[in-house]
Specification:
The chain is mainly beta.
Length: about 120
């Protein structure tokens, strides 16, 4: 399996959007809120359960850093959400980079990692 075959979160051409996405391997839906901060030129995410339990609040997207890294709630999805680039010239997760797909928020499970090892 190559990195291009991994799934990623669909991004929208908007400075602020909310979507309902399945995260992890258990088929559970989560509320995914993305906001672009013009001043800091960065994306921030809030991820909540359908019951409105906030798991991650206003977490800045950073290349190669798991959004769920500091989420310790038992309702946390069993996956990693990592902004990944396919161009070494990109150093930050800006508006255009996310919208045009130069940076993708990858949805990676432990099973995906095992397949990548082989």
């Amino acid at each position: 399996m190559t990195i291009s075959r991994l799934s990623y979160i669909q991004w929208f051409n908007s400075y602020c959007f909310e979507s309902k996405v399945i995260l992890g391997t258990k088929g559970v839906y989560y509320i995914f809120e993305a906001d672009y901060n013009v001043r800091s030129e960065s994306w921030q995410l809030t991820i909540s359960t359908e019951d409105e339990v906030v798991l991650v609040q206003s977490r800045k997207l950073v290349v190669n850093v798991d959004v769920l890294e500091f989420c310790f709630n038992k309702l946390k999805p069993d996956c990693y959400l990592v902004p990944i680039i396919d161009n070494d010239n990109i150093t930050s997760v800006g508006y255009d980079n996310m919208v045009n797909g130069m940076v993708k928020l990858m949805h990676i499970t432990d099973g995906d990692i095992e397949l990548l090892k082989n």
